[in-house]
Structures are given as structure tokens and as C-alpha cells.
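Q: What structure does this chain adopt?
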Amino acid sequence: MFNAPFVLLFTLLLTAPLLFLFAPRVLPPKRLLISLPKEIDDASLFRRAVLSSVQSRGHVSPLGATNAKPKIAFLFLTNTDLHFAPLWEKFFDSRKSRQQDLYNVYVHAYPNSDVKSPGGVFENRFISAKKTQRSSPTLISAARRLIATAILDDPLNSYFALVSQTCIPLHSFRYMYKTLFPRPTESTRFPPRISFIEVLSEEPQLWDRYIARGENVMLPEIPFEKFRVGSQFFILTRAHSLMVVKDRKLWKKFRLPCLNVDTCYPEEHYFPTLLSMKDPNRISEYTLTRIACRR
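A:
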């Protein structure tokens, strides 16, 4: 007859391998959280960006004081090598000196990774970065850091384009610039100074995405009928970019960890929801250009 301690030990030895095998499938995967020091560090950067814009209002606008033209800030969020750098070089056509004064490039790469600057338009354009992870609010923070850095870097940055380095716009930079900044005498179907961001209110998994952090977690700030989804990539005006870095109310909801990572894509939820709630009449609800992406 086996005694009780022996049976217990035998059972533990038998079940231990099964726990290692099935636990990852049963327990939710560990998500990267935003620590308080990192949150404070980001908040300081955002405050500086907002303050710089407030101070500039009391001075003559750089666009009105000189012949300088408004610029597009291209924001790259990546944790892989910039494989498409040669194609982006062709897109910008940096050999044309006139076009070099019409854009700025900023890259947020995974810290301590082997992502290296390929030179050209990406040379010395890497910003201070923090770790990111899918299905976590860290991607929102990274996008906000890119925006805040671009606001501080150049007062001529008037549009802020968050783009994927693995996707290339099918139209040229010149076409994109003329679309965003049409001459006053040219007719255009785009209202002046609107943001181009996909905003969807009807999507098969909308409810599942809404409750990914818990059933009533988003209330009262974000009722379900105000919740939106869309692409994580966008082109925002300077006014909307400032709105993003100023936000605290919605951010405190979206920074919460996801319980269901299969339906939680914070970066695809936060920006469409924020802008559709704050300024619905100044957003397109669709992206600007067609793109070609690496599969």
C-alpha cells in the first residue's frame, strides 16, 4: 500500500511536464507594461512639446516671416532592419535639393536591437526609444514620442505621417506634398488641413475589441458607441498631433493592460477613438494614399 506522501510526490512528478506543455495555452501571455518612471519621462517630453507650441504663438510664424514652406514629418516605428530604405530614398528623391527642405524623418527603433541606420535620409534620425510589444499600449506611447519629438524638432512640421517602413506609397513624394498643401488657386476635393486617418464604427469584432481590457473598464470616458477602430498608420495635422500629446483622459483607459490579447490592438483603437471624439469634422475617416507592402 502506497503512503500518502509518496502518492503526492509521484503525482507532482507526473503532472509537471503537462503543466509546462499546457500552461502557455491556458494562461494569458505576459504583456509589456508601462512603468511609472517611463510614464513620467514620456509626460515630460509631451509637456515640452505642448509648451513649445504655446510659446511659438506669441512670435511671428516661421511660415509668414520667411519663404520657408511647411514640412511633412515622416515617423517610422520599427523593430526590424530598414529593408526598404533604398525604395524610400527613391520616394523622397533626396537628390532634389528643393525636396530636402520639405520633409523630416524620425525613426523609433527597438532599443538594444540590431536596427542600424542605412544612411541617406535616415542618417542621424533615430530618436530616444523604449521597448514595444504588440497587443500592448507601448505602441501608442512610441507613436506619441515620435509625434512629440517632431513637434519639438521643427516648427515647420505641419503634417505628421506615421508610416510602416515595410510599406511604400505608390505615389511620389511630390504628389503627396501637393495633395496635402495645394496652392490656394488650385481646386481640390480635400478640405484644407484635415487629418487622414481610418475610422471605423462597424467592424465584426468591435465589441470584443472594446471589452479586451474588461467589460466596463472603458466607462465612463469611452462608451461603446464612441469606440472606433482603424489603421495604426495615419497623417495628422499639427493641431491634431498636439491634441494627441496633450491627451490624458483617454490615455488612462488605453494604457491599461489587455486581458484578451487576441482582440486587443491599442494603437489601432486609441487614435481613431480620440480624434473622432475630439474633432470629428476635421478628419477624413480614411487614409490618404495607396501603398505597396512586403508580404
